[in-house]
Amino acid sequence: WNAYSKVKTSTLTKIAYKGMIMDQSYAMHKCTPSRAALLTGRHPMHFGMQTSNILPNRAYGLPTNIPLLPETLKKIGYSTHLIGKWHLGHCNENYTPTNRGFDSFFGFYR
Fold first, then answer.
1. Which of 4, 35, 87, 102 could form a disulfide with 97 if both were Cys (CB 3.0 to 4.6 A apart)?
2. What is the arithmetic mean of pLDDT over 13-18?
3. Is residue 1 predicted with pLDDT exceeding 70?
4. In this predicted structure, what is the pLDDT of residue 14?
């Protein structure tokens, strides 16, 4: 959707103007920082994950004291599932998706 497009999207335009139009967005340059930002709602520099990916066999992960989106969604009754790449730490069971709020995980860690 784009309000300035030459393509007419009357239904999408109507939906957008009833809600919120987000016309600026930013993404991190690597997988780990992007996933950390998406799942926490915070810039990854707040917990030291802004510069690079977590490499295999590294003894750290996304800090477990930071609540993630799936943990919050589960509290209000949603089921949560992840398919794809985790890339937020797996050296300890506590860092893995099913211990961070996801009911199930099908994918790989790095």
1. 102
2. 84
3. no
4. 85
Q: Which residue has the higher pLDDT, 81 or 110?
A: 81
Burial 49-70 (b: 16+ CB within 10 A, else e): bbeebbeeeeeebbeeebebbb
Query: Could you report the per-residue pLDDT of 28-85, keeping only the tens digit for each?
Result: 788 899 999 999 999 999 988 888 888 878 899 999 999 999 999 999 999 999 999 9
Residues labelled catalytic: 31, 87
Beta bridge partners of 108: 85
Q: In whole angstroms, what is the distance from residue 1 CA to residue 74 CA?
A: 30
List the alpha helices (DSSP H) in the chain.
10-18, 31-40, 69-75
The torsion angles phi and psi of 98, rounded to 5 degrees, stand at -75, -10
Q: What 3-state class would DSSP assign to 58?
A: coil
Rg (Cα) of the chain, in Å, rounded? 17
Contacts with 82 (C-beta within 8 Å, 6 or more apart), sequence order: 70, 97, 102, 104, 105, 106, 107
